[in-house]
Amino acid sequence: MKMVPDKYLKKVILSSDVFAVCIQHALTTEKQEIMGLLIGEVDEEACVSQVTACVILHRSDKQPDRVEISPEQLCRASMHAEQLAVTLKKPMRVVGWYHSHPHITVWPSHVDIRTQSTYQMMDPLFVGLIFSVYHTDQRIRSNQIQLTCFQAHQRNSELERREVQLIIENSPLQGYNLEGIANLPKILVQEEVESHSVKDNETIDPVARLHNDAFKTVALVHIVSKVSRPMCDDLVERLNVTNWRIKELEALKKELLDS
Ligand SMILES: [Zn+2]
To answer: Could you tell me the residue ranges of all domains in the chain?
Structure first.
């Protein structure tokens, strides 16, 4: 029987802009699980992982409760990490994965723990994040967003979840993460177009085609109104706050120079 290596992460430091990208991604759908890969640096000795970027993955199979990362996707994410490593002059690599649990609790399922354990066989410090969204707590009757950070742990022959300490660190919005947010609607549009496209061997009558096109239009309008527009509003708001802060700092600088 294969064993999970006996080396575990002690702490994960997640930058706040990556946290924002993941939440934004998780909130795009309450019907399926979304997923992506985490990029950053790992301190092998201290067993601490620092997550500073992420890659949003495109789903080809929209089955509920089925999140799988294909080798091609992993390869593309590694290439992205290598590019970032060159730009930032830091040893960036794929350090973990994230996925969402819409309408269910944040805890990893048996499938999640098994998947996580296979990643740990390749990289003992690989980590998993789960974002629970659209889950209502009956006692407080409000919508909650929860996050867990975990690894798989082998006790005797049983695989179990091992919680990892998670710290969200405040960070300015980096250009490459902004690009990640901006690419989100594009990825969603691509998924919709693919899922509605007619396969070559499929014969389709005009009414069915009309029906299909109408559904595609509704889905695309949904992306614009529920994802792109709020995202633009949010970014404009962030810009206003930043401009206001610049003004404030300039006034302070002038005051200090004059005194
Ligand atoms: Zn899961």
So the answer is: 11-169, 198-258
Q: What is the 3-state secondary structure (H, E, C) of the chain?
A: CCCCCCCCCCEEEEEHHHHHHHHHHHCCCCCCCCEEEEEEEEECCCCEEEEEEEEECCCCCCCCCCCCCCHHHHHHHHHHHHHHHHHHCCCCEEEEEEEEEECCCCCCCHHHHHHHHHHHHHCCCCEEEEEEEEEEECCCCEEEEEEEEEEEEEECCEEEEEECEEEEECCCCCHHHHHHHHHHHHHHHHHHHHHHCCCCCCCCCHHHHHHHHHHHHHHHHHHHHHHHHHHHHHHHHHHHHHHHHHHHHHHHHHHHHHC
pLDDT band at 64 (very low <50, low <70, confident <90, very high): low
Distance from the CA of 48 to the center of ligand 1, in angstroms? 23
Judged against a pLDDT cut of 80, whether residue 1 lies above it is answered with no
pLDDT in tens, 100-136: 999 999 999 999 999 999 999 989 999 999 999 998 8
Q: Report, as an integer, the average pLDDT of 19-33.
A: 90
191 Cα: distance to centroid of ligand 1 (angstroms): 21
CA of residue 151 to ligand 1 center, whole Å: 13
In angstroms, what is the span from residue 180 Cα to ligand 1's centroid? 22
Q: What's the CATH code, domain 11-169? A: 3.40.140.10
